[in-house]
Amino acid sequence: MTKKILIAVDHGPMSETVAQYGFQLGNQLGAEMALVSVVDTEYLMTDGGITTGEMIEMMKNDFVLKQKTLVEKVFGEKRVDSFIEEGKPFLKILQKAQEWESEMIILGTHGRKGLSHLLMGSVAEKVVRHAHIPLVIIPVK
Q1: Which residues contact 78 (CB under 8 A, 6 or more apart)?
Q2: What is the tens place of the pLDDT at every residue in 27-86?
Q3: In what order do the strands lie in the sheet with 4-8?
Q4: Is the pTM of this model over 0.85?
Q5: Residues 56, 26: Cα–Cα separation, whole Å
Q6: Can you tell me the mean pLDDT for 4-11?
Q7: Which CATH number does 4-139 carry?
Q8: CA distances from residue 38 to 1, 27, 42, 96 in whole angstroms, order as listed
Q9: Where are the domains of the chain?
């Protein structure tokens, strides 16, 4: 049975670090790998010059480019599936892991504390609380 590792990446500059850790682990385990990115639509607001739907499409296109760059830079010739989802990030990561039958999730955490953590929450923390498969959390400060 082939192992499957789902690697969650966002727009942040540390996504490459998370992808590299995922790639290294995936290679060591001989696993299939996939990237997942989620357009967070929960608090999406626009300034009126663009519709919410247009903003979502722009963000999805940005994720497509980000993932393409990561695949070329980090994964090289290795086959990597790519998923772009929209909704609550932690829910979509967990949902995609289940749909794709992933056996492990790798994701980063920004390590926010105090008010920013209270206001923003932590996708990683929510995934940890609700996941039913092993996780690897990469601190990305």
Answers
A1: 23, 26, 27, 33
A2: 999 999 999 999 998 877 767 778 888 889 999 999 999 999 999 999 988 899 999 999
A3: 80-87, 32-40, 4-8, 104-109, 135-139
A4: yes
A5: 30
A6: 94
A7: 3.40.50.620
A8: 28, 24, 11, 10
A9: 4-139
